[in-house]
Amino acid sequence: MDNTTLSASSSKWTEIEHLPEWDEEFYHVYTAKKHGKWLMLKTLRPELKGQEKFDRMIEKEFEVRYNLAHPHIIMINDFEEVPGLGMCIITDDVYGDSLAKLIREGKVTEDHLFKIQHQLLDALDYIQAKHLEHHPLSTSRIIFTENIGNLKLIDVGFDQNTHITPKDVSEDIKNYGEVLMAALDAAGSTNQRLRRVAEKCMNSDPARRYQDVNALRLALADRKTNNIYLAIIAFLVAMIALLLWLNSPYRPEPLHSSQSTECVAPK
What we know:
This protein is α+β, with helices and mostly antiparallel strands. It contains 9 helices and 10 strands. Helix content is 44%, strand content 20%.
């Protein structure tokens, strides 16, 4: 790379900052601006750069994750050389606080619990449907974005399999239960229904856990809300049936007084 090219490349990248709390087993994570827009960068640790095994690993992760699309999993934009860092996986800026940090600081709220029940479970469902390899779910791998508190899951999709095993599903559900229980404890929640769900997820006997995400989703659903929905559905079904009956050609004609009495002519 000549000096002109290096200068142009350097000028588009500014305010590069290492984020040690976000570092992964094989990677360092940075935040930076590209042409003035905040992004996040992920690159191999210095001691691993240049080793064929790890160079191929980061390339594979880019290939798998680039084709993913889910609102609660961090997506990849590009894979390019960044001055001073080397080849980097580039994602949108999702700067915020990990669930682990929120737990340490006593800042877990009911809103976080709601998003763990819905957004995290949606992400887990997507991961399993796509047969994605990922690190175990944990409080440190769940991020709530700084601006709107949207849940984002990191460390997902470093490889993709042709199928997912029942053991993989069971481990995911166990880890989900551990995350949910940790959040409930941190929030001081007395929601016994959610605690029972978390306990079942964490059962030491895999056969006694929920067997898939759909079963877990049904268990997490609010039964009172479900009953309301069922009542509304039943009412709508009844109204549709009534309308169909009123418009049916087989419905008997109503009897009117002028037709019910037979007229007899006088003799």
